[in-house]
Structure formats: C-alpha cells, structure tokens
Amino acid sequence: MTSKPTRRHIAAIPALALAALVVAPFASHTPVDAHRNVGGALGFIDRTGALVVSDVELHAVGEFSCGRARFKLHEKFGYLDRSGRRVIAPRFEEAGDFSEGLAAVRLGERFGFIDRDGRFVIPPRFARADAFSEGLARFATGGDAGSRFGFIDTTGAVVIKPRLASVERFSEGRAVFRDESGLAGFIDRGGEVVIPPRFERAHAFSEGRARVRVGGRWGFIDAGGALAIEPRFDGAFDFSGGLAIVRSGRLHGAIDVDGRVVLELRFEAMESFREGLARARLGGRQVVIDRRGNEVLTTPHRLLDGFSAGLAPVAVDGRVGFIDRTGALVVTPAFERAWGFSGGLARVVVAATGGRLARGPK
C-alpha cells in the first residue's frame, strides 16, 4: 500500500491499455471522471444518440451504478438519477460509486456508507473506506502512517479486524494481501491466510484463476494456490469469457484456462474481449478481431474504446460519434468526448455551440 491513496480513472481511457497491470493501491473515492470544458456540458446519451441528460453546471460525472451517477459541483460530490435529477445533494468531500446498494462517502474527515436516497446506513467513522464487493468492504481506522485495514459487512459490523498493512477487494471468496516483506498471498472471507504470501505480485481471482508474478514472469494459480499455468509470460490480463490476454516480448495473444494458446501471439497490442470483440494492432494497423483472431471490422475512424451495448465510440474530424458492429456510423459525431455504454447510457461531453445549454434538473 502507498501511504496515500492514489486517484484512479473511472472513465474508460480512450487508448489501448496494453501493459500488464499491477496491484492497485487502496482506491480513492475522488476518481477522475468525465470533465467538461469551459462553455460545454456533461451529459448522457441513449443508443439512438439522443441526449437524455445535459447539465452545464457540473464539473465532473461518473458512470451509472445502481441507478446513480456520482457528480462533482463546487468541490463537493453528490449523485444524479437516470433522468439527470440531483437526487443526492453535493455535500461530500469524496464519494465512490454505488455497489451492492451502498456508496462510500467522506463527510468531514471520516468515511461512511449511504443508501440510494443519501441516508447514512453506516455512520462516518472510518479514516478510509472502499466499495462493497461480495458483501464486504475494506476500511482503515488509522491515518496514513501505519494504517491497518480490515473489512466490514453491509451492516457495518467488523468481519475482519484491521490488522493488514495491504489488502485488496474480495473476488471469488479471496482477497490479495501483502505481508511486511512485500510478498503477496490471499486471505478468505474470515481473514484466514489460505494461500501463503510467496508471489512478487498477485491479482484478484477471475473465472477460477488469479494472475501472479514469479521470477519476473506471469502465470496463473487456481483457488487452492497451485500453479495452473506456469509463469512464462511478460504480461497478462485477467480471464474474461474463458480467455486471458498474454504478452511475450512485444507480442500479444490469448490463452485458455489451461494455458493453451488459442490466439497466436502476433499482435503488437491487444485488449480484453468485450461482447466477443477486441481491439488490437497488427502490422501497425488498428483492427477489431473476434475470439478466433479473425478481423471482423474495418473502419476509417479511430476507435476510442471497445464495444458496449453493441456500439463503440470513434473519433471523426475532431468529434466523437459511435459505430455499430458492422462499422456503420449510427450516432452522429457531435461530442467533444464520449465513453462506452453502461446501463443503456453513455457519458458525453457536449461542445459549446454558441446556443444556450439547459441547466440540469435539480
């Protein structure tokens, strides 16, 4: 863990994120979201491209989760509903996304958890707190120096006492932790060590496998901690849909859960599959491939993100629109920036046009 939580991007990064990931420090609750330019507006569009939420006052906005989207106004955080109403007034110094019906927020110097109506379900009493995952949320009771982390349940009861110097969220009943020497292992939901710390790095379980680094190379372990895929890669991503993107040298491909190469390592860059498609780079060209490695889409436009809800944002003459899976431009390029769809809506930055932009509903 770092002594101070770092900021993390909630908005999809409009470029291929292709280097092997590292274990994230304790998550901040003031992530960098979609920001507007002076004179523009933040909003959400539906799949037809219709602007269903537009607000010229907001400084930043996150994506929807549990029917709520975090926004920032005058250095305070609140939440919108899907109509754009500010259903939770901006009164928090920090705020996280809703997860399992609750959101971690900071009021004054302490974190607590609110429900979708903005009521505190777990009073603010933690120095730091994180989103719920599998019914448990990380918390810290002390300051940055010598902090120890534990877990609470959705009632606020302490399930794992704050004794860990470094720990991640739970996934598939396991959470990554680091011992005092910096080696990574895994605990169970009772806080017991089930996989001793022996890895240089480790990531959360996904589809029964967890990425680990041993001797500078990446492989995968099973839920019991045994090496299911020997560490032989220079980089690796989590399993998704039965495949994991891996890298040897500068070339990327994909393996299955038994470590068999199912996509030859021939791509200069590649991201995880979404909706059966993945962005990649081959011979200096941007391509979209299916799970067999076939090129299935050709577009003259630069893809800014992968497909979600059947659409992907593209850059066209300095503006952003959306294409469908055939490559047809189905949402007119009218936005300064745009992100992928989540819950049927996509965040956009609306350019100032000289006309009046409506203020968002209060």
Q: Please give the count of helices.
A: 0
| Shape category | flat
Unreliable spans are: 1-32, 354-362
- Broad structural category: mainly beta
End-to-end distance = 39 Å
- Count of individual beta strands: 36
Sheet with the most strands?
A: 7 strands, antiparallel
Description:
With 362 residues, the chain is mostly beta strands. It contains no helices and 36 strands. The strands form eight sheets. Strands 3-2-36-35-34-33-32 form a seven-stranded antiparallel β-sheet, with no helix packed on it. A five-stranded antiparallel β-sheet has the order 1-4-5-6-7, with no helix packed on it. It has a four-stranded antiparallel β-sheet with strand order 8-9-10-11, with no helix packed on it.
Concise overview:
The chain has strands at 34-35, 41-45, 51-55, 60-61, 69-73, 76-80, 86-92, 94-95, 103-107, 110-114, 120-126, 128-129, 137-140, 149-152, 158-164, 167-171, 174-178, 184-187, 193-199, 201-206, 209-214, 217-221, 227-233, 235-236, 244-248, 251-255, 261-267, 269-270, 278-282, 285-289, 295-297, 302-303, 312-316, 319-323, 329-342, 345-350. The strands form eight sheets. A seven-stranded antiparallel beta sheet has the order 3-2-36-35-34-33-32, with no helix packed on it. A five-stranded antiparallel beta sheet has the order 1-4-5-6-7, with no helix packed on it. The chain is mostly beta strands.
